[in-house]
Amino acid sequence: MSNNLVGIIPPLITPFVDDEVSTEKLLENLSKYESHMLSGYVLFGSNGESVFLTREEKLKIVQTVREHTSRTLVVGTGWDSIKETISLSNEAAELGANYALVITPSFFKSEMKHRSFLNYYTRVAESVMIPIIIYNVPKFTNVNIEVETIIELSTHPNIIGLKDSTENPSRISELKANVHSGFKLIVGTASVLYSGLLSGASAGILALANVAPDHCYQIYRFFKEREFDKALEFQNKMIPVNKAITSKFGVAGLKAAMDLLGYFGGSPRLPLEPLNEAQQIELKMILKNASLID
Q1: Is 163 labeled as catalytic in the residue annotation?
Q2: Residue 263: closest CA among 31, 21, 6, 97
Q3: CA-to-CA distance for 48 and 205, rounded, in angstroms?
Q4: Of 25, 58, 163, 255, catalytic
Q5: Contact (CB, 8 A) for 44 and 58
Q6: Which residues of the chain have pLDDT under 70?
């Protein structure tokens, strides 16, 4: 199974209408993505506002998306609780998830070191029926799983990859040289897609692919075809857009960009707030400069 974690995989947003999940809008977006060169979808990454969803909402979304696509489905199932992570991962698997994306536990930050992570991921991996991908996103968790820990975990037959959102390609290089041979390294942000691929990553799970799926795919395609200048050109063009929809404006910015590009973004779920007027104007200019809108 692990050989299909290649190419471009968007972490889908969760559309809300009146602060409730809209499966209708989700499926409208999905039907548009189905015509693009995407390798699969992630549900409940950071951009899916995972932390604001109930368990019931998550399972309903997995079921709905699986009924409308045959592509690879990576589902964010990680909680600080091992028990809850195992339970949600297995329920998602029963509904058709192919992989469980498991974020690093982070509440007891000072305790989250090498041994704790080994215990956590090994226990989860031994109890879930689908392969797991470690999800490292220090920007949100304030914990960073060490290279040595990942290398050790990569030998477990049911831990098959890492989504790394640190924007540090040298970490990918070091991992690539030392992890188990079938272990997949996945770039977690579009600003370092090109350098990540160069360092040995096989795929990108990129917020940017929600709004510019073709541009992300071109970076990947040109890289694979060894047309490095072209890949780099696309990469550089996308950096300001990626910055706007991730670090600068966050989920609200990503959703606003989707609205401008013909998808349904809508508002984030409370307590997050939509962009104000000045931010919307700034976002429009960034998208215009990147030739994504007229």
Answers
A1: yes
A2: 31
A3: 12
A4: 163
A5: yes
A6: 1-3
